Each structure stands twice: as C-alpha cells, then as structure tokens.
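Lab channel / #folding
Pinned by the channel admin:
"Please post every new chain as: sequence first, then the structure tokens as a reply. Keep commentary short and put observations after the output so the thread stays searchable."

First post following the new format, from NK:
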Amino acid sequence: MQLGTLDLLALSPPGWGGNLLRALLSSLEIAAGAFVIGLGLGTLGATGKLYGGPMVRDLLELYTTLVRAIPELILILLLYYAGTDLVNRAAAALGYGPLDISGLAAGILVLGVVQGAYATEVLRGAILAVPQGQIEAGRAYGMSPWTLLRRITLRAMLPFAIPGLANLWLIATKDTALLAVVGFNELTLTTRQGAGATKAYLTFFTAAMIIYLAVTLVSGVFLGRLESWARRGLPPIREAA
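Reply from TO:
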C-alpha cells in the first residue's frame, strides 16, 4: 500500500504534522528570500563583470570563485556565526548594543550570498548569449544604454537565463536543509526532532522526502511554463542524438 504525504503526516503523533507543514513554509520563505537576494546580487555581479573596471571585475571574480570553491556547509557556518559576530562588533564600535539578528533573516542573507555567486555566472552567460546583431541594431537606432538594456538585452537573455535560474531555485529549496546545523527550525531539523521524539524514523524522513519531491515537481511545472513563455517565437531546442 502506498502512502501519500498527508497519510504519512497523519501517522505522526498529534501536532507533528502541523509542525512539519509550518517548517516547510519556513523553508520556502528562506528559499524565496535567498533566491531574490541572489538574483539581485547576480544582476549587479554580472553587470560589474561585463562592464565594470578592472578592480570591480577582479573583486567579483574573487567573490564568485571563493563561493563556488568552498563547500556550502562551511560557508553557512562561517557567514552565520562570523558574520553575526562582525555585525555586533561593528555595532559596538558605533556605540550600539548587541543586535538581535533573527535566524530567519540570517538564513536568508547567508543563502542569498551563496546564490548570488552562482546567479552572477548564470546571468553573465545569458547576457553574452544575446546575439550581438541585436545589440548593434539598438545602438544604431540611438538607444541609450538603459533603453538598450530594458528593451533588448533583458528580453533576449531570458530564454538563456531561465534554465540556470530554475536550477538555482531548486538548489535554494534544498540548501535550506543545511541551516539545520545552526539550529534553525526548518523542515529537516523539525523532521529530525520529530523522528527522535517518536522513534518513527522511517515515517518522518519518508514524509520529508515526499514533501521535498512535491516542491520540486510543482516548481518544475511552473518553471517549465515560464521557460516556454520566454522562448515563444523562438525555434524549439533540438536534443542531441
């Protein structure tokens, strides 16, 4: 007999099903916030790498290289603890008391910094994939750099950027599980607590697996439709034989 997610949650002691669903909402909130921050950092990073001065490009190259080279778990531990300590030291130097940084805000910012490095490279590659003829045609019409970016570059880069950004969103939803190591009450930590309290390890971790799978499948449907919309009017992608 196959059990659905709600059936698995119903097998838990009273209250744990609700706890898992609330933890899922926290995980999605963190993932969405981190993705938005990463998208903003990626936009600035891609612009700086392509059009910035030598110092800006070097700093951005250092940022993306370090973040992509260091394991994400180590980055999360470093940014979560050391970053909070640096903020409080800076506040003390300015005459303020210790700042109470919520786990939610810290989790979003930490994952946002990680997402930003990958988004920088995704968006940079998408911008470079825009046919130069379109850019030159816009310049020939006398478009300003902002108008050229808004009317040509952003629209033309979307079909190339969405697949990579879709992967980053899925990575963000799974990376929220890493915040369990710093004690943030997201889905993975709540699952582990419930399994430890009830000794129903198979039930709880199977339920968590199905929840993550459901999020991935729903996201895949939405992102697939978004990619189809962005590619409207373009020739279909031919798969390699």
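NK: The first helix runs from residue 5 to 10.
TO: also worth noting, The domain at 24-187 is CATH 1.10.3720.10 (MetI-like fold).
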